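thought: fold this chain, then report.
action: predict
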Amino acid sequence: MEPKTSKKREAFLVGLVQMACGEDPRKNVIFAEQEVRAAAKLGAEIICLPELFATRYFCQEENPQHFDFAENLGGTTIARFNALSAELEVVIAVPIFERRAAGIYHNSAVVLDGSREALGVYRKMHIPDDPRYYEKYYFSPGDLGYKVFDTPFARVGVLICWDQWYPEAARLMALSGAELILFPTAIGWVPEDRNDAGKQQLEAWTVVQQSHAIANGLFVATVNRVGVETRGTSDTDGIEFWGNSFVSDPSGRLLARANTERSETIVVSCDRTAIEDSRRNWPFLRDRRIDSYQNLTKLFVD
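observation:
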């Protein structure tokens, strides 16, 4: 049986659209399209937008009216970006607030290859419920598993934001042949944490994802939003999204990193020979003791 590795050329180019998201979904979509075009002009072949990019981060409060932001997978946003994918001959990972049925919604990402339309959908598996991140109110947990999509440029997995903290998710994608994991994200500081723990939070977020790249011998690309988004009660009652979108190679080296405060689109060349080199020198997949991991299927080992 042939291994699940790409037969494509040595390097693929990843584009990340870091953006500030405003009140008007139409303007957010127009800006995202503009930046996808800019990334493609710079040579990007696989382009990723931030989590829930079409709207402000509405999960800061529990408000039933926010369900009106959701749309079906066959809606206008996906149709628009699929046409763009076909025009530019690129792959685009498009996060969406998915309305699956009445009362069933997901935090999803659709991987689009214009010539073949949607390669597939990933639904966020790990759903947080923290102050200002009340996602369990809006989203059902994903039920499609950890899928890897065979694009014309690389084998790509998608995980979304809170999924970033779970090594099991990244490992399962590596075992399915992923060369690149995309992490569309919406994460930042709440005012009461910025001064005391802000630096440590940002470093932890970066390091845990670099560790996924190292432990699995693949590329990791994370795209975040920027700007302060309030809940409307005061200028300080909200989240300051910290940007810092980045690409890590299989050794954990940051190939590029965006800024903290403004929209920025970065394009990074990923040399897939680094995957082979990493896995030869750090053969973590070879040395796994799969006979000893039974307790991973338990919530906790008493």
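thought: worth noting. The chain has one domain: 11-297.
final: tokens above.
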